[in-house]
Each structure stands twice: as C-alpha cells, then as structure tokens.
Amino acid sequence: HKTTSDNVIMAGLTYHGAFGVILDPKLVGFVDAFEGLPNIKIVTTLEGQIRIIRQVRNEMNRRYELIMQYNRTAVEMGLPSMKDHPDRYFTPIAMLDDEKGSLTQEIKHWWKRPAEYDWEWNEGYKEFDHDKGQGKPGRGDPLPLQEDQQILWRGRAAEIRRITSAQQPNLDVFLNSDMREQYGFKVLSGPQSASAWRMTFPGAKKVNVPAKKGRAVYGIGAEDQKDDRSEERFSRNAE
Questions:
Q1: Order of strands across the sheet that contains 185-189
Q2: CA-to-CA distance for 177 and 2, rounded, in angstroms?
Q3: CA–CA separation, 234 and 52 (whole Å)
C-alpha cells in the first residue's frame, strides 16, 4: 500500500507542476509509472541518493538566498512577495522515499566506513574535516540525514516538499524524534497499535479504527486525527 499511495501522491504533485525526486532502493517500485518522464528523477543507488539529498538541500538554501536578496525589490515593483508566495517564483520540488528504514540504515552503514573507503566520489563532505569529529566519516550523526532534516525544517517555505513512507515510525528509521515529528501530514495505516500511535501522533488520544484493509488514520498536527472511511465513501459513490 505504501508504494501505491506514493505513486498517487507523486502523480498529483507532478501533474500540478512539481519536479519529482524519488529515492527508490527497491529499483522496481516506480519505474513502470514514472520512468522516462522529464519532470521526475528516479534515484536507485545509495551514492545517488546521498548526492541528491545534498543537491536538494543546496537548492533550498539557494532559494532562501534569492528571497532574502530580492523580496523587497519584488514588493516595490508591485509583484507578489517572494517570502509569502514562493510558488510564484520557484518550481515546486517533491522528494519522496518509499522505504525510509532501508534508506536510513544504508546511510548509517555507509557513514561508519573508514574515511579512506568510498569517500573519494564526494569531495563535498571533506569540507567538514575540521569539525572536531562532527561530520567526519564514522563520527556523529550521518551528514546526509542531517541535511535531510534541514529540508524537513525549512523546505516548505522554499516550495520543497518531503514525503516519506516507512513500515514503522521508530527512531531506528529517523535521525531523531524531532525529525520524525516534522512531517505536517501523517497517515497511519494497518493495525493502529498503541506504540505506533504514540510514535505517529504524539500527545493525541488514540482513535479506534477497525483493522480492515484500506483503512487508515490521517492527521495534520497532533490534535486532528480522522478515520479515513474510504470503504463507506466508495459504497455511497457506487450507489
């Protein structure tokens, strides 16, 4: 169900003008639907996924620099504010990964390799060598995951969206609890166990939903969870 949902989300976003970036370690999940489209990039290798996370983070920072530099000029010219209407100035970017747990574990494993192994392909990370161990290969939190968290924190106002699917929303999957809770719109499908509920909607009272195929709970923030009664809606529409 994750891949099907992700296909629908990405199709909707790109249909409305976004450029889609799909991190797909399974190699086959999105190829049939999106391969060859000019506004979607499918990245299947770990090296490529690490590179694209940095590229998206850098593009986000570039957009903020442009907003800081030209927002006042735009307003003085009678144009929409770049700060308030970034969609008027930048192509939306939607970066999606279908298996967050797999991506996180592969990045953590890669990060622990010796500094002399498999690092020559990305000179960009060597700029952190002076940082007292924080950012060196094998030490501290993996930089690609830190950069991914920056996209979650700041991407929305630069028209960059981050979509993630995971089997379980535990801290082995995310860098930390703050990263896990940055997602503004959350969907919990399948059996809503007490632990899965606490991790997905911290601080919210659990909603009892029948464990039926096609049922899920979705929410924006921590206090507005709703049962997706898709079966009932389908039945009414069919009638």
A1: 185-189, 216-220, 225-228
A2: 22
A3: 39
Question: Which tokens belong to 9?
Answer: 């989300």
**pLDDT tens per residue, range 140-190:** 788 899 999 999 999 999 999 999 988 888 888 888 888 888 887 888 776
The alpha carbon dihedral of 193, 198, 217, 56 has a sign of negative
Q: What is the DSSP string of 125-191?
A: GGGGTTSTTTTSTTSSS-HHHHHHHHHHHHSGGGTEEEEE--S--STTTSSSHHHHHT-SEEEEES-
The span from the CA of 55 to the CA of 155, in Å, is: 13
Q: What is the CA radius of gyration of the chain?
A: 20
CA distance 220 to 227: 13
Q: Which amino acid is at 181?
A: E
Give the model confidence (pLDDT) of 111-151 as tens digits.
Answer: 877 555 454 445 555 544 434 344 455 677 888 999 999 99
